[in-house]
Amino acid sequence: MLPNVSSDPVIRVLPAETGCAGHLAYRRVSACVMQDFGVIADEMAAPSRGSPRTALARQVAMYLCHVGFSMSFEAIGRQFGRDRTTVAHACRVVEDRRDDIWFDCRIAALELALNGKTMSEAERGQ
Fold first, then answer.
1. For the whole model, what pTM was predicted?
2. Alpha-carbon distances of 35 from 2, 11, 63, 88, 124, rounded to whole Å
């Protein structure tokens, strides 16, 4: 279940333009990833890389926006305040790390959460 992003200050959404479908996907993905990785919006929005955990959380969020919501690198970059080449790099990093079964399961669980499914529903093919 996705967190209630409007009431929890720890997982409040990052600033960006409002009103577009890409921004809604960005908000949803960011909230889910911030909760899973235990990072706050200020860390995700910082202009520097931040801690390794924060950098990986940001990369995962960028990857999920691209893979799960078909957002372009440029659109994702605008939402995260990064360049499209940074987004492309993030997607490569996450894709390469999916060879690790633990990491792959973690990303798969995030994908399921973003699609509103539970693990048992996914196993049944629903």
1. 0.78
2. 9, 7, 16, 23, 26
